[in-house]
Amino acid sequence: MSEDILINVTPQETRVAVVVQGIAQELHVERTVLRGIVGNIYLGKVVRVLPGMQSAFIDAGLDRAAFLHVADIWRHEPRRDSPTRRDGVPDERAPSKALPPQTGPAPNGNHEPIERLLHEGQSLLVQIVKEPLGTKGARLSTQMSIAGRLLVYLPQEPHAGHIGVSQRIGDEAGREALRARVLRLLPPTETGGFIVRTLAEDASDEDLAADIGYLRKLWDDILTASRTARAPMPLYQDLGLAQRMLRDFAGESTTTIQIDSRESFEKLRDFAHAYTPEVAGRVTHYVGEKPLFERYSIDAEIERALARRVDLKSGGYLIIDQTEAMTTIDVNTGGFVGGRSFDDTIFKTNLEAAHAIARQLRLRNLGGIIVLDFIDMLNREHQDTVLNELRRALSGDRTKMTVNGFTQLGLVEMTRKRTRESLAHVLCEPCMTCKGTGQVKTARTICYEILREILREERQFKPREFRVLASQSVIDLFLEEESQSLALLGDFIGKPISLQVETIYM
Questions:
Q1: Local confidence band at 160 (pLDDT 50, 70, 90 cut-offs)
Q2: Which one of 16, 26, 80, 156 has the fewest beta carbons within 10 angstroms of its own beta carbon?
Q3: DSSP class of residue 190?
Q4: Dist. CA 303–CA 292, nearest whole Å
Q5: Would you say 40 and 33 are in contact if contact means Cβ atoms under 8 Å apart?
Q6: Burial class of residue 450 (count of CB atoms within 10 Å of its CB; 0-12, 13-18, 19+)
Q7: Three-class SS of residue 413?
Q8: If you compute the radius of gyration of the chain from its CA atoms, what whole number of angstroms results?
């Protein structure tokens, strides 16, 4: 099915919606203040070498000098066909097909003293491996790794063509098959290594080859930039949301990629021409009078995606509860009475709910353990049909998941891989009134708590009088149904009790 990618860019955040046949299926949000710098690559300058600590401080152009320990320095052993400068960056005269020189730790794990490896004023290619914390600067390494969607590229891997596989892929036969597939796709000139990520488990050879080509070109561009840059200088930062969407989501089924910022459009277009030329012609700058997300009703869709209740067209509805342990989705018939019989009504509601659940999982990015409570169906054939419909609806989801059959309690258990924070966790925070439970105490409960608190304060502090500040509903209850209780307490303690509405209380 054809899809459109809508990108809304402001200085504060980038929002992306994936729309399939006019209906939003995925929402992504990235805020500028929350973007980290781990993985960024810089041409840094050594400002101080500390032999006593076997460390060095590197000026990478950040707010504070970054820290490099000798254990994080990989010594470069240049090949004859890949001459290098003193700073370890390949010389411009090296053949264009040559990749970065092999690197490796000192033999037997014994590190050569840092004062022999670095000197003040030296330029050095470094990567951030740990964010700055408090007064401490960022932690650096000279061993580079660049993450793609399916693979992680290790351009300095000393064993050419080495392929590692994520430990999360537990099947040994599957791990070996993946390793063999990637090795078969590597060009003969490859001198680096790769780590296969879990997402690659179900990827096609075309997807893997595209990721290999993208990562190798990215590293070549970093090296090219390093040859003319003056330290300190940033050379690479992890892709922003718009570029990641273009790299990971845009494909043959993508009709248009609309972005509403002229500056971001030009950058995205250049990125597309360099790394994803097959979709570069579909990147367009949106200049409509209405805001992009308003025109396609995406803002309204975001509000609905944050609600606990999801209404179905038939009159039924879903109740979605997200907790730390799991997410539960309850299906209800609501006002739907359109079936020929009660069983038929339940069956049709569950079929519609299966599609709605699949969409809500993607839209809200719900992950982890998910328990689905469909309306009880006695007919086994109906259960199988609903389960197959659910699996079919989930087939368009790019995220890895498993779906089990109905349990003895009539529940469907499934898992969906956590790839990022859910939409609710990005946009919302726990309510200060209910502390995130989703419920608040009744006015009558608050009334009784106030009466007990007045009695406790009287016994402990002996005040001359009491004034109760509460919400309008609590005060109304004290003036009406609970007026006698308040009067009896006042007589018992022998102190006046006054009431006042306070609007800050809900």
A1: low
A2: 80
A3: -
A4: 16
A5: no
A6: buried
A7: strand
A8: 30
Cα–Cα distances in angstroms (integers) from residue 75 to residues 40, 159, 223, in the given order: 20, 14, 17
Task: Give the span between the Cα atoms of 402 and 417, in whole angstroms.
Answer: 9
Please give the mean pLDDT across all residues of the chain: 86
Query: Is the pLDDT at 500 greater than 70, yes or no?
Result: yes
Paired strand residues for 236? 41
Q: How many CA atoms lie within 13 A of 144 on its CB side?
A: 31
Cβ 302 vs Cβ 27: under 8 Å: yes
Closest to 125 measured CA to CA, from 156, 96, 104 = 156
Pick from 36-50, 95-109, 298-312, 360-374: least confident: 95-109
- CB burial class (10 A; 0-12, 13-18, 19+) of residue 504? exposed
> Which phi and psi (to 5°) does residue 433 adopt?
-80, -50
First to last CA, the chain: 47
Q: How many CB atoms lie within 10 A of CB 214?
A: 20
**Amino acid in the structure at residue 51:** P
**Does residue 365 surpass a pLDDT of 80?**
yes
Give the residue with greater pLDDT, 376 vs 248.
Answer: 376
* Residue 274 backbone phi and psi in degrees, to 5: -80, -40
Integer CA distances (angstroms), 193 to 52, 151, 154, 475, 500, in order:
34, 10, 5, 71, 71
CB 219 within 8 Å of CB 100: yes
Whole-number pLDDT of residue 337: 61
> Which secondary structure element, helix H or strand E, spans residue 460, and what is its range?
helix 443-461
CB 459 within 8 A of CB 493: no
Query: What values do phi and psi take at 139, rounded to 5?
Result: -95, 140
**164: part of which helix (H) or strand (E)?**
strand 163-165
The closest alpha carbon to 193, from 239, 248, 152, 238, belongs to 152
According to the model, what pLDDT value does residue 90 have?
37
Prediction pTM value = 0.73
The structure tokens listed for 80 are 């004859």
Residue 41: which of 55, 58, 64 has the closest Cα?
A: 58
Residues 476 and 490: their CA atoms lie apart, in Å, by 18
Q: Which helix (H) or strand (E) holds 43?
A: strand 41-50
For residue 85, what pLDDT is reported? Answer: 34
Helix (H), strand (E), coil (C) string for 234-273: EEECCCCHHHHHHHHCCCCCEEEEEECCHHHHHHHHHHHH
